[in-house]
Write a structure and sequence with these properties.
- By secondary structure, the protein is an all-alpha fold.
- Helices cover 40% and strands 0% of the residues.
- The chain has seven helices and no strands.
- Helix 3 runs antiparallel to helix 6.
- It is globular, with a radius of gyration of 20 Å.
- It starts with a helix and ends in a 31-residue tail after the last helix.
Length: 186
């Protein structure tokens, strides 16, 4: 951002104004691994997305940002997809189908004879998501917590998540000197 402002060849005053606008209005956030992972924090959200009421997802962690399924019914598909992604013609050795929350959700909805559609099931699931109940432990969901903290700071409203640590990757400690941050939250 600093380099782009410098390259724009603005006057010193205009450059300072641009830095101030970026610092006070812009922020940067990450989701990990993808937004569908958050639906696994509420059984009713999974049902609104199209899963059967009896579905019992199998995950290795309660932190849905560290999404990784251990579902024995889904792992054979994961192995097959991983082998394909790691092979030719363009190998992707970093691919882990077990981390793909949307594909796992599609699998679970498919077990109920349905098809997961983001614009229908996804909207229904997220529109009434019980945000305070999604994190199981206080240290879960640091990235989404950072997003909500930043939005809360900007709009002057509290985060819907219960207290817990925000990710230091995208949200500074409260002791940070805000006037020295590159972006509002970094």
């Amino acid at each position: 951002v600093q380099d782009e402002i410098a390259a724009s060849r603005q006057s010193a005053r205009a450059g300072q104004r641009a830095r101030e606008i970026v610092r006070t209005r812009c922020s940067f956030h990450l989701l990990s691994p993808m937004v569908e992972s958050l639906l696994f924090g509420e059984q009713a959200a999974l049902q609104r997305a199209g899963c059967a009421s009896t579905v019992a997802p199998s995950l290795r962690s309660t932190d849905f940002e560290d999404f990784w399924t251990t579902d024995e019914n889904w792992l054979p598909t994961c192995s097959s997809v991983n082998a394909e992604k790691h092979g030719e013609p363009q190998p992707m050795p970093w691919w882990h189908e077990e981390r793909h929350a949307k594909h796992y959700l599609e699998h679970l909805v498919g077990q109920n004879g349905g098809i997961y559609d983001e614009t229908v099931g996804g909207v229904a699931a997220f529109s009434r998501l019980d945000w305070p109940g999604v994190p199981v432990q206080a240290h879960d969901l640091g990235l989404i917590r950072a997003l909500f903290e930043d939005l809360g700071d900007f709009f002057g409203v509290p985060s819907p998540l219960p207290p817990g640590p925000s990710s230091c990757l995208t949200y500074p400690p409260r002791t940070a000197r805000r006037n020295q941050l590159l972006l509002r939250n970094m």
